[in-house]
């Protein structure tokens, strides 16, 4: 899971468990002036809050680990934290002939209309315009 997903789970769990703790404290603090039903009601509310918090966090974790968007987010984060992903960029002309191929560990930036930009492992920046050709980026 991504760092942002873990932060969400931790904040949600802390919020839910703090509410449960407050309800449990109220149930313990209820003394003889209150009816016995109040203690039981607050205890049930505490258990329900813990259960709901656990279900929300569990469902979110399951979604982030088992959905394609969760996998893409994780791969993006791993790329950002480790300096890129092993990629091969192949540049073809308008007739389909290979012009150049770049391989290495790098990130690719694009405006999705006319160019891609990346710095290779040697520190050289490449800006390739593809208005008259095709570029294929394969990730490993």
Provide an overview of this structure.
- The chain has 2 domains: 75 residues; 56 residues, SH3 type barrels (Roll).
- Helix content is 52%, strand content 25%.
- The strands form 2 sheets. The protein has a 3-stranded antiparallel sheet.
- The longest helix is centred in the middle third of the chain and has 31 residues.
- It is rod-shaped.
- The mean pLDDT is 83.
- Keywords: Membrane, Transmembrane, Transmembrane helix.
Briefly characterize the structure.
Helices cover 52% and strands 25% of the residues.
Write the layout of secondary structure elements.
Elements: H1 3-29, H2 36-66, H3 68-82, E1 85-92, E2 98-106, E3 109-110, E4 115-119, E5 125-129, E6 134-139
Antiparallel strand pairs: 1-2, 1-6, 3-4, 4-5
Report the total helices: 3
What low-confidence regions span 5 or more consecutive residues with pLDDT below 50?
none
Secondary-structure element sequence? HHHEEEEEE
Assembly classification: single chain
Mean pLDDT: 83
Secondary structure: number of strands: 6
Please indicate the count of domains.
Answer: 2
Q: Structural class given helices, strands, pairing?
A: alpha+beta
Give a quick account of the main beta sheet: strands, pairing sense, barrel closure: 3 strands, antiparallel
The best one-word shape is rod-shaped
Keywords: Membrane, Transmembrane, Transmembrane helix
Transmembrane segments: 6-28, 40-63
Could you list some keywords that capture this structure?
single chain, 140 residues, alpha+beta, SH3 type barrels, three-stranded antiparallel sheet
């Amino acid at each position: 899971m991504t760092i942002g997903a873990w932060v969400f789970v931790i904040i949600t769990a802390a919020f839910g468990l703090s509410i449960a703790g407050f309800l449990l404290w109220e149930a313990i603090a209820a003394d003889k002036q209150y009816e016995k039903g109040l203690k039981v009601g607050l205890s049930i509310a505490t258990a329900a809050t813990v259960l709901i918090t656990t279900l929300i966090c569990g469902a979110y974790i399951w979604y982030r680990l088992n959905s394609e968007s969760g996998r893409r987010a994780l791969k993006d984060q791993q790329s950002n934290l480790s300096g890129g992903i092993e990629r091969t960029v192949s540049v073809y002309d308008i007739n389909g002939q290979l012009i150049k191929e770049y391989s290495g560990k790098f990130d690719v930036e694009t405006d999705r209309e006319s160019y891609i930009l990346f710095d290779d492992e040697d520190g050289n920046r490449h800006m390739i315009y593809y208005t008259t050709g095709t570029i294929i980026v394969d990730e490993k």
